[in-house]
Amino acid sequence: MPAAVLSERLARSAADGGPDGRRRGTRSRWSPAAAIRSALSGRSVAGQVFVFQVVIVLLLVVVAVVALVLQSRHDTTTEARNRSLAVAETFANAPGTREALSSPDPTAILQPRAEAARAATKVDFIVVMNTDGVRYTHPLPDRIGKRFVGTIQPALAGGTVVEDITGTIGPLVQAVVPIKAPDGRVVGLVSAGITTAHVGGAANRQLPMVLFTAAGALVMATAGTALVSRRLLRQTRGLGPREMTRMYEHHDAVLHAVREGVLIVDGDGALLLANDEARRLLGLPDDAEGRRVRDLGLPVDTAELLASGRVATDEVRLVKDRLLAVNQRPTHLRGGPHGSVATLRDSTELRALSGRAEVARERLDMLYAAGVGIGTSLDVTRTAEELAELAVPRFADFVTVDLFGAVLSGEQPEVGTELRRTALAGVHQDPPLYPVGERIQFVPSSPQARSLRAGRATIEPRLRDAPGWQAQDLELTSQALEYGIHSLITAPLRAGSLILGMVTFWRSENPEPFDTEDLALAEELVARAAVSIDNARRYTREHTMAVTLQRSLLPRTLPEQSALEIAYRYLPAQAGVGGDWFDVLPLSGTRVALVVGDVVGHGLHAAATMGRLRTAVHNFSALDLAPDELLALLDELVARIDQDEAAEGGSAPITGATCLYAIYDPVARRCAIARAGHPPPALVLPDGSVEFPEVPAGPPLGLGGLPFETAEMEVPEGSRLVLYTDGLVEDRERDIDVGLDLLRAALEQAGPSPEDTCRAVLDSRPEARPSDDIALIVARTQALGPDRVAACDVRSDPAAVGEVRASITRRLTEWGLEDLAFTTELILSELVTNAIRYGGAPIRVRVLRDRSLICEVFDSSNTAPHLRYAAMTDEGGRGLFLVAQLAERWGTRYLPGGKVIWAEQPLP
Q1: Which residues contact 186 (CB under 8 A, 6 or more apart)?
Q2: Regarding beta strands 312-319 and 843-849, do their DSSP bridges make them parallel or antiparallel, or are they unpaired?
Q3: Which residue in 309, 281, 315, 316 sits closest to 294, CA to CA?
Q4: Where is pLDDT greater, at 529 or 203?
């Protein structure tokens, strides 16, 4: 039998009378049914309590019935008197009663009324009589005309009479009231009466409730007695007194035979029982039982534990030269008496073994924690900090991590270079050690240098006897010794053949020096951390390469142009490098193209794909294509990239990309936009209102087979065109509609300049670092006014060339550009002549004064001119060559109804 169970039973027996068998009985074993019958028969305490409860209930029922009868009689008489008096007075004062007495036949008038009133008021009779007591009405017509039986003298004097009598119909209450004339004279009498048997009935209604209540009380008393008897049977486990006595005797024999000490203490801290083993282990005196445990000369902590009665499990206490494992449980948790039972086990020899096992378990637990707690991020510095924080204070009081500078930047380290202190953790904040960020060059005699050369961990158990370590920095090491640092282990961070740095473990609070077992643990711990640090280093290198590639592919400066005032922002994602990009491309005719794109995914592949798309957009924009045509070419390019990857068996994912391309014309103040799976642009009008123009959403790039559409809209001067990537308005926690609403609110509150707009949009974001890249570009539109544009229509006649030259020359004079008149005349002469000769009507000429002087000639032909060298015998073919020599740039732009040949000249 377990000692705890035995001791608990003994505690209960001590509180119930002890194991001396003083509880006797005549039956060997009780069944539950027999015990309940015995309880109800009155032979047991429960039965006596039950009989007492029954007597009390019956006495209460008798008293309640008597009180109910007496109260019912009183209420019946009172109600009968009140009702008869009220009916008599009401009938006496009723209209027509007094007048009927003076009629020739009062009975004919009053008898129907009296009977109707009697039926309505539920009285037994209403009798109207004259002053002599002769009846005019009565429920029995044969009694009309006879004298009234009762007292009428007070009523004749103007009063009322209420009396209890016994009539032919039984006990009744009748009232007599006068009928008065207007002058106060009594002219008749009215009597109303009701038998008491017809009043009340409350007792009859309440008596069943009293009886039912009594029956319920008896049932509850019976159930309570049964429950008490059943609880007693359960506590004694169905045993009779003889069996219980024999059980207590056996328990007493076992109690003193077990090799564990057993103590029973009551709720006041007094010792009730101690077996022989407990007396031996604790050295208790012979008279210990009955005394308080605090007075037995035990150690204070042991006495406090035994007197407290709290739960204790294998708590070790030193008593003299023994280590005792104490287990203690309260006895009242399962319905027993207040107190506690404690068992004592001598664990002096087991303690040493368990201590070593506990140390091994703690070390395994620390290694497991290192596996899951080091390397939670791909950051070199944070990984080093996690290693230092894990080992303090479980293994060392201070931990320092020193890494080569190349490791922090993601490069391969070179042994022999100086180290940088990357992490420091300890039980105190001010240790005399090199601080974080310090560059350290260890002297050859130091344990750190020896560990780096050997490539394995080194231990210095006593630093006061280590001159090689003290030679590192005499002043600092002296301060460390005074501080209490007395032992160290240093281990190199080795990842394969690379040594990334080293970790040093220091002890100051723990007086025990490091030993060889600690050295093995340190090597294992550092080896696991080195893998995580090397992974972080590799990630840092790849991330740095991707960021460098991405930064090199994004525009570093924006080109000069006058059509748009532009501000932009680019925010990289929290992890990885994305493929978001943007660009600003000046086009012919002072027009400017804005492009924003997003390559799906992160890393080098996304950055490289973004660079290819940006280069392609640069090349396609030189063709002056419409936005939908340019997106169609990009779509074909992305599909070709995917085909090349599939053909080469590459592991790169299928390229997914979105793009928005917009062309703004400052002369016409119109913007043409097309998008391929990209979020729509936002337009902030000069009055501050925000719109999201309806731009047809084409498919993402690379799908193929579906056309793109261009939307054109007029943009007032001073409006702000906002282009962005989906990272600004969409993430895993919110839908794009919510993001667009937040963007609208930020734009409505933003200042008028593009810089203010970019700042307001990014400040309104709830996240400090986005989960996806964000590219944002804000362009405020400007217009090229009519005073800077010269345009005219040209007749299809060679003679019209001179008229064009003269008109443009006058306009150049107005602009103060007389120095460009000669070259402009030559350029326009050649271009207009070619349009008249090879093109088709209509022909128009337009000259724009912006950052340069731009000449444009439009005709309805789609034939493109080509620059070539004319032979010596050719009469023509030198016009475009001459234009190319005189102009800074020239080219052709195709329109739906023809083409435009343009040429630019720098302004003086």
Answers
A1: 131, 155, 156, 157, 158, 178, 179, 180
A2: unpaired
A3: 309
A4: 529
The answer for residues whose C-beta is within 8 angstroms of residue 526's C-beta and 6 or more apart is 387, 457, 491, 492, 493, 503
- One DSSP character per residue, 819-873 reads GGHHHHHHHHHHHHHHHHHHS-S-EEEEEEESSEEEEEEEES--PPP---PPPTT
For the chain, give the number of residues.
Answer: 908
Retrieve residue 412's tokens.
């391969």
- Residue 580, strand partner residues: 598
pLDDT for 695 equals: 92
Contact 403, 533 (CB under 8 A): yes
For 753, the 3-state DSSP assignment is coil
- How far apart (Å, rounded) are the C-alpha atoms in residues 131 and 320? 118
Continuous H helices in 455-580: 467-470, 474-483, 516-553
Phi, psi of 567 (to 5 degrees): -135, 150
Residue type, 278: A
> Which tokens sit at 433?
């050690």
Sole residue written with tokens 């003299």: 320
Residue 707 DSSP label? -
Rounded distance between C-alpha atoms, residue 488 and residue 398, angstroms: 9
Could you tell me the pLDDT band of residue 651, with boundaries at 50, 70 and 90? low
86: three-class secondary structure by DSSP: helix
Between 846 and 25, where is the model more confident? 846
Distance CA 158, CA 184 (A): 8
Using CA atoms, how far apart are residues 134 and 146, in angstroms rounded to an integer? 5
Tokens standing for 305?
């534990």
How far does Cα 670 stand from its chain's mean position? 48
Q: Are 89 and 176 in contact, with CB atoms under 8 Å apart? A: no
What is the set of domains in the chain, with CATH numbers?
68-202 (3.30.450.20), 259-353 (3.30.450.20), 374-544 (3.30.450.40), 557-781 (3.60.40.10), 789-906 (3.30.565.10)
